[in-house]
Design a protein that fits this description.
The complex is a heterotrimer.
Chain A (H helix, E strand, L loop, with lengths): L3 E10 L2 E11 L4 E5 L6 H8 L7 E6 L2 E2 L5 H7 L1 E3 L12 H9 L7 H5 L3 H20 L15 H14 L4 E5 L7 H18 L2 E5 L3 H7 L2 E6 L2 E7 H5 L2 H8 L2
Parallel strand pairs in A: 3-8, 3-9, 6-7, 7-8
Antiparallel strand pairs in A: 1-2, 1-4, 4-5, 9-10
Helix pairs in contact in A: 3-5, 3-6
Chain B lengths: L1 H33 L5 H4 L2 H20 L7 H18 L6 H27 L4 H21 L1 E5 L2 E5 L13 E5 L4 E2 L7 H19 L2 H11 L1 H6 L4 H24 L4 E2 L3 H4 L1 H14 L4 H17 L7 H17 L1 H23 L1
Chain C lengths: L1 H30 L6 H18 L4 H24 L7 H23 L4 E2 L9 E3 L4 E3 L1 H23 L1 H11 L1 H6 L4 H26 L2 E2 L5 H14 L4 H21 L5 H15 L14
Antiparallel strand pairs in C: 1-4, 2-3
The chains are: A alpha/beta, B mainly alpha, C mainly alpha.
Chain lengths: 252, 357, 293
């Protein structure tokens, strides 16, 4: 079975059918693209996947575990992490602490132990700090550790969001328009980062993107959404050359 | 790794400065008192300084760290004050003062925490101004209910009524604990400046360690971005409740200190009403949102200010109001912030130019 | 008949709350600030009428007009001096400034008039209404209060919907930046809102003091808070909501005082607010806005 298996997913908002009969199957280690015109329902799929919305019908399986209708935090614990279209960092906190919040569930100690600084506090904090630095180093962000997240340059903020997501030790990483608002140079650097994350962490990545250079550059498989329905699915080049897909993008 | 060590010591140093400031102030005041340099008026303010500092730090945990506006902290203070005063009054003859006050402190903190938890469960789902108005409402309800309670104890045990003293049906030798709007009379004077300073240090210790812990980071993450915090697996409700309950409990501690410094404890609008909650919020905002040391300084200065202005009689509160408005505009107006930055740059540029020559 | 009497006096009190709440809700809707000083403008309005009518012997109606004019100016000045410099600053900073303004107004009144309550003479001199052979007497001030609040509510609704400046207000409340780009004078619109809110506060002050004839520097404080509760109750930003919230609050308060406990009446009022907000977090007529992910 594939790592992520979605069958017949659907949701309506009022009378609007936002996503309908959505199927996808992402293999472990794959770099998978979800594309489509604005308003096609791509982010809605992510929100269904991460428990922000509860699907009206259909089922979501991660590694054979049924996640349909689970709450956001349980889905995170089950192994899906995400970034957001409009960057959502913990802006007033240092970069290091942003990553530490991502590590939260893997390095537990109680509030009581924290306030009275019992031995477990020191031990766990030390391990946590070391791990957070390790992640920042992997992403080449160690020098920013003490900076408030909101003061980072745009490209670094995107990277920090990915680092924070990776801190939760996910099986599947969802990237929502990671290249939005980036210039060509930043996009190129981002492509390297995404490839690096896949190779270094042996990660499975599902991403939403409008930048066709990025999509054709790194995605191995694509699903095209249009008006909430799957328009095409398959290998990247094959899908991008599909006349129906081209028509949907250019508008008939 | 060098940066890491540097950072840890920076926050730790910052916390130490706060403790040091409180201890230094305590020592200086004690010296001044013993050499007779402190007027009896200011001496009477020493415990209130501690009370308001504690409750300001407590509220700052909710406002600055959790990022939610509470206008009900006077209510939590009220709960702590009354439960502890009732306990101390009931045990006045049976317990020596030190264990009695320690037990009263725990009872006050625990009951305020319980009320904070019960209030927090429903209201923390609300946001912003709605949360503010509902906490204000809860504070008023608490004050109102306490004003309607009659409680007494005699050989048969506790008697309770919400109507009047007569309906308690107490025997002659019974002891009235709460007399409705007349409040609690005769609770022992167990608090003093030293006790206040110790409690303030404990409060600062708890809050600052909380902020630098895993729980504190989770709470601040929720403050900065709730949706992102949820997406990395933070249980929003749980951490909001933890922070709010601790904050309410520390406000209760302030109430305990307050109650044991008076001969009669009443729940009046001026000490436990929304006006007091607002005053505490003023301490927090003027001292700096999220800045615990600032809360202490602001609480002390703003408690002292009306007394310093006492010679101006009727004009003192007028001046207080004007000072408050002017300070808010000076500190927070976008134009003033811009202006201050410009002046600072000018000065820095001037200094550099001077060095070159 | 006593129930009817309690109900009617509740509606009367509620109408005063409604008038204050209308001002609150407009200011909140547009400036997005809790104007804690709003209640104190009511008090100032009361004192102006006290001075002009009781002191200078002016015609009550003229006194009301003077009071409304004075409060309009006061509201605009407060906005200009204290709130406008803080536009764009943290809402908490604005809130604390409003509290400062509230202290300021109270202490000005304290200096000018002292803390003793002033006996306020009823400005409504019409005869009382007697129903059921005099079993139920409705005071003329009650009738006038209810009528005024209904007229004001309808007038404001029409004003906001039909006039150019009213639509500008709606635009500013939705999005200040976009409104500015569309050529709307944002500062001017906010000033007009304060002017309207403050003149309504003066009106409310006169009616409040006519019904409860005792005026102190703190008279406006609690009704101000309650009216704000009423505005939240009805759904803040909504004009009909403020009206309904005000009336309901007054009725609940009076009936609780009469039938349950006068001491716990406020607690009951606040409890009902909490219950309403827990069931419907944006109030009775408020709009639900959800954050987009």
């Amino acid at each position: 079975m594939a790592l992520l298996e979605i069958k017949n997913l659907g949701i309506s908002f009022g009378g609007l059918r936002a996503v309908n009969a959505f199927d996808i199957s992402v293999e472990k280690g794959q770099l998978y693209g979800l594309i489509g015109p604005n308003g096609a329902g791509k982010t809605t799929v992510f929100n269904l996947l991460t428990g922000v919305y509860t699907p009206d019908e259909g089922a979501i399986f991660l590694d054979g575990v049924n996640l349909t209708g689970k709450k956001t935090i349980d889905i995170c614990r089950a192994g899906i992490a995400r970034t957001f279209q409009n960057i959502r960092l913990f802006g007033d906190m240092p970069v290091l602490d942003n990553v530490k919040v991502g590590l939260h569930n893997h390095y537990p100690y109680s509030t009581f132990e924290g306030i009275f600084r019992l031995p477990r506090y020191y031990r766990t904090e030390k391990e946590m700090t070391a791990r957070a630095y390790e992640l920042l180093r992997v992403f080449g962000m160690e020098e920013y550790a003490d900076h408030a997240a909101r003061n980072l340059p745009y490209g670094q903020q995107r990277k920090l969001e990915i680092a924070r997501a990776m801190a939760t030790e996910p099986k599947l990483l969802l990237l929502d328009e990671p290249a939005a608002g980036m210039n060509p140079n930043e996009t190129k650097e981002l492509m390297d980062t995404i490839r690096f994350v896949r190779d270094h962490f042996d990660m499975t990545i599902l991403l939403i993107e409008h930048d066709m250079k990025l999509v054709s550059g790194i995605c191995e498989k694509l699903t095209v959404l249009n008006f909430g329905e799957v328009l095409a699915q398959g290998g990247t080049q094959e899908v991008l050359n599909d006349p129906e897909v081209i028509a949907a993008y250019l508008g008939e | 790794m060098k940066t890491k060590a540097g950072k840890l010591s920076k926050t730790a140093k910052n916390d130490m400065i706060t403790y040091g400031m409180v201890i230094a102030a305590y020592i200086i005041v004690q010296i001044l008192v013993s050499t007779g340099h402190v007027s009896s008026l200011v001496q009477g303010l020493l415990v209130p300084f501690c009370t308001y500092s504690i409750v300001a730090v407590a509220l700052n945990l909710t406002v600055g760290i959790l990022g939610e506006l509470s206008l009900g902290h006077a209510g939590f203070m009220c709960v702590g004050a009354f439960t502890s005063a009732v306990f101390s009054l009931a045990c006045k003859e049976t317990l020596p003062s030190v264990p009695r006050f320690a037990a009263a402190l725990l009872i006050g903190a625990a009951s305020a925490a319980l009320v904070g938890f019960l209030v927090g469960v429903p209201v923390l789902r609300l946001k912003g101004d709605y949360l503010a108005i509902v906490t204000l409402a809860f504070g008023e309800i608490i004050k109102n209910i306490i004003n309607a309670i009659y409680l007494g104890v005699d050989a048969e045990g506790l008697h309770f009524s919400m109507k009047d003293a007569l309906s308690l049906g107490m025997s002659e030798d019974g002891l009235m604990l709460i007399k409705g709007a007349q409040g609690v009379t005769g609770a022992p004077h167990d608090s003093n400046f030293t006790v206040g300073v110790v409690l303030l240090l404990i409060t600062l210790f708890i809050v600052q360690h909380f902020i630098r812990s895993r729980t504190g980071r989770a709470v601040m993450a929720i403050r900065d971005n709730r949706i992102a915090a949820e997406s990395v697996g933070i249980n929003i409700t749980k951490y909001k409740l933890i922070a709010f309950t601790i904050s309410a409990s520390l406000a209760g501690v302030a109430g305990v200190l307050y109650a044991h410094n008076l001969s009669t404890l009443n729940a009046l609008p001026k000490n436990f009403g929304y006006n007091m909650s607002i005053l505490i919020l003023v301490f927090v905002v003027l001292g700096g949102i999220g800045n615990m040391r600032g809360s202490v300084i602001a609480a002390v200065l703003l408690t002292l200010l009306p007394e310093v202005l006492r010679s101006l009689n009727d004009y003192r509160m007028l001046i207080y109001a004007v000072v408050l408005i002017v300070m808010m505009i000076f500190n927070w107006s976008p134009n003033m912030i811009f202006l201050r930055k410009r002046v600072r740059q000018r000065l820095a540029a001037g200094r550099e130019a001077g060095e070159e020559v | 008949m006593s129930f009817a009497a309690h109900l009617i006096s509740g509606i009367s009190l509620g109408s005063v709350y409604a008038l204050i709440a209308l001002g609150y809700t407009m200011v909140y809707g547009i400036a997005k600030m809790l104007n804690f000083a709003h209640g104190d403008v009511i008090m100032i309005g009361g004192y102006v009428v006290f001075v002009t009518v009781s002191g200078m012997g002016m015609n009550p109606l003229a006194g009301i007009v003077v009071s409304m004019a004075a409060c309009t100016v006061l509201g605009v000045v407060i906005e200009r001096v204290a709130y406008r410099p803080l536009r764009g600053a943290s809402p908490l900073a604005v809130l604390i400034t409003a509290i400062g303004v509230s202290y300021l107004l109270q202490n000005i009144a304290l200096l000018a008039f002292g803390s003793d309550p002033k006996a306020f003479s009823n400005v409504v001199t019409l005869p009382n209404l007697e129903l059921f052979d005099g079993q139920l007497v409705i005071k003329s001030v009650t009738v006038v209060t209810v009528a005024v609040s209904v007229v004001v509510m309808i007038g404001l609704t029409l004003f906001v919907k039909k006039t150019k400046i009213g639509r500008a207000m709606t635009a500013v409340s939705e999005d200040k930046g976009a409104a500015q780009l569309m050529g709307i004078n944002v500062n001017g619109t906010i000033a007009v809102t304060f002017a309207i809110g403050s003149s309504l506060a003066a009106l409310a002050g006169v009616l409040l003091c006519s019904a409860y004839p005792s005026l102190t520097p703190y008279t406006g404080s609690m009704p101000g808070i309650k009216a704000f509760v009423a505005a939240v109750f009805g759904g803040i930003g909504s004009i009909p909501g403020a009206f309904i919230g005000g009336i309901l609050l007054g009725v609940i308060e009076n009936l609780s005082k009469a039938y349950i406990s006068s001491q716990l009446a406020d607690a009951i009022v606040f409890s009902i607010l909490i219950i309403v907000l827990l069931v419907k977090p944006t109030g009775l007529l408020g709009k639900q806005v959800q954050e987009k992910v």
